């Protein structure tokens, strides 16, 4: 607080601290052999929750393809879906985190 200014709260942007750090991709080749490259790519992109449209822009996959792959990942328990306003955000589950950590 600075005396002439009113009290303020500031929150850091979520995920900005690791924005420019290189992504860890070790061990994804073995996972891609089982899940497929597209599904593995989507799992690695879900470090922070994202919508289908955002993932399509980031990965270059079609929105329909992203949606189909996310449905399969959700059915397998690797991704969870949460509604946020008018969009659905997908996030990795702890099972997917441990799978990618190996």
Strand order in the sheet with the most strands:
1-2
- Quick one: overall form? elongated
Helical fraction equals: 40-55%
Number of helices: 5
Classification by helices and strands: alpha+beta
Poorly predicted runs are: none
Q: If you compute it from the alpha carbons, what radius of gyration comes out, rounded to the nearest whole angstrom?
A: 17 Å
Please tell me the overall pLDDT.
Answer: 84
Keywords:
alpha+beta; 5 helices; about 10% strand; about 100 residues; single chain; 2 strands; two-stranded antiparallel ribbon
Could you characterize the architecture of this molecule?
There is one protein chain. The chain is α+β, with helices and mostly antiparallel strands and 102 residues long. It is built from 5 helices and 2 strands. The protein has helices at 28-35, 37-45, 52-59, 63-75, 94-101; strands spanning 79-84, 87-92. It has a two-stranded antiparallel sheet with strand order 1-2. Strand 1 and strand 2 form a beta hairpin. Helix 1 packs across helix 2 and helix 3 (52-59) packs across helix 4. It is elongated and about 60 Å long. The mean pLDDT is 84.
List the helices and strands and how they pair.
Blueprint (H helix, E strand, L loop, with lengths): L27 H8 L1 H9 L6 H8 L3 H13 L3 E6 L2 E6 L1 H8 L1
Antiparallel strand pairs: 1-2
Sum this structure up briefly.
By secondary structure, this protein is an alpha+beta fold.
């Amino acid at each position: 607080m600075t005396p002439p200014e009113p009290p303020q709260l500031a929150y850091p942007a979520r995920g900005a601290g690791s924005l420019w750090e290189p992504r860890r991709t070790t061990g994804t080749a073995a996972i891609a052999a089982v899940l497929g490259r597209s599904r593995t790519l989507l799992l690695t992109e879900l470090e922070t929750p994202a919508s289908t449209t955002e993932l399509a822009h980031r990965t270059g996959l079609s929105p329909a393809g992203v949606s189909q792959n996310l449905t399969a990942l959700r059915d397998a328990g690797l991704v969870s879906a949460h509604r946020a306003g008018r969009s659905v955000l997908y996030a990795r589950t702890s099972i997917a985190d441990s799978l990618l950590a190996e």
